[in-house]
Amino acid sequence: MVKIGNIELGDFPLLLAPMEDVSDPPFRAVCKKNGADLMYTEFISSEGLIRDAAKSVQKLDIFEYERPIGIQLFGSDINSMREAGIIADNAHPDLIDINYGCPVKQVACRGAGAALLQDIPKMVMMTSEIVKIAHRPVTVKTRLGWDDTTKNVVEVAERLQDIGISALTIHGRTRAQLYKGDADWTLIGEIKNNSRIKIPIFGNGDIDSPEKAKIMRDRYGVDGIMIGRASIGYPWIFNEIKHFFKTGEHLAPPTITDRVNVCKEHLDFSIRWKSKHAGIVEMRRHYTNYFKGLPNFKEYRTNLVTTYSYDEIIGILDEVEKKYTEMETV
Among candidates 318, 250, 223, which has minimal Cα distance to 14? Predict the structure, then answer.
């Protein structure tokens, strides 16, 4: 049984990665329904949170059915992170996660996210302050290092464990790689098999199939796997991996009806959570992913991302279901 603090996650948990502009409550809802064991909010700016910025505060929204769930924070100032940690703690998540892995320029070049891999003492001090104030487990997500010449994640893992974090997720790339090239899990495995390390170690990077998940589990011995981009438009991946682990066989892929139904659920939750207008607009980024691979889908997509009418969207989705179901049965 894998545990983060007192949170029991099963024998080999599958985690949904925190993804900006993706892993909001509507997206998390469909992933939870399809097998995600632990989820996180989108990452939240500590500066935005302590200044009561509406976008940052809204990201604190969590729902009972989502548990266990973590709130993820990022920032470059230790005092601001400590204050944001108190605010996040008061929102009653199951854990607080600190982002030391985001590679994007707007974050890393401001001294946050993966930038802290260049200043381990500051990372340790910042983490320690949040561990002190939190009434729940604190976890960290990071990368192998800043670049190929500074892969310092072994030191990071040991020092962060020593000051009290309860689990560590490692993305198998450096900051310099961004999301290019292949993820290297070698150091992740070394950390998991380091006799000093007692906390759960989760691997992240390039898991897009049940076979790949099994290879990484068996080869590197990690306690669980975090899945990010492969879940966008395809929340079924969590249950597919679990089924493959249990039986060695593949679940049947989602039908067109399955895709349409989950897409509708996602849309309805998005509208309930935000508003009709905002929900419809924000859902537009997901249609291509839900219907990836369908031939001649461009016209439907164009209509889906240009209308503001809920009834029209439902009508288009019904038409998609009818047309492509007929194609499946031919």
Answer: 223
Q: Are 136 and 89 in contact (CB under 8 A)?
A: yes
pLDDT of 31-84, one tens digit each? 999 999 999 999 999 999 999 999 899 999 999 999 999 999 999 999 999 999
List pLDDT tens digits, range 170-183.
999 999 888 888 89
SS3 172: coil
Flag whether pLDDT at 189 surpasses 70.
yes
Q: Whats the size of the chain, residue-wise?
A: 330
- Whether the per-residue pLDDT at 329 is higher than 80: the answer is no
Q: What is the CA radius of gyration of the chain?
A: 20
> Which is the catalytic residue, given 31, 102, 109, 263?
102
User: Domains of the chain: which residue ranges?
Assistant: 3-247, 256-329
User: Closest Cα to residue 56, out of 87, 22, 82, 90?
Assistant: 87
d(C-alpha 55, C-alpha 165), whole Å: 27
Nearest alpha carbon to residue 143 among 108, 96, 93, 91: 108
Element (H, E) at 158: helix 153-162
- Region 159-188 average pLDDT: 94
Structure tokens at 27: 């997206």
- Catalytic (active site) residue 109: no
DSSP codes joined into one string, 253-320: PPPHHHHHHHHHHHHHHHHHHT-HHHHHHHHTTTHHHHTTT-TT-HHHHHHHTT---HHHHHHHHHHH
According to DSSP, the residues that pair with 243 across neighbouring strands are none
Compute φ and ψ for 195, nearest 5 degrees: -60, -20
Q: At what angle do helices 120-133 and 153-162 cross, to 10 degrees?
A: 30
Domain 3-247, classified CATH 3.20.20.70, yes or no: yes
Q: What is the mean pLDDT of residues 265-282?
A: 94
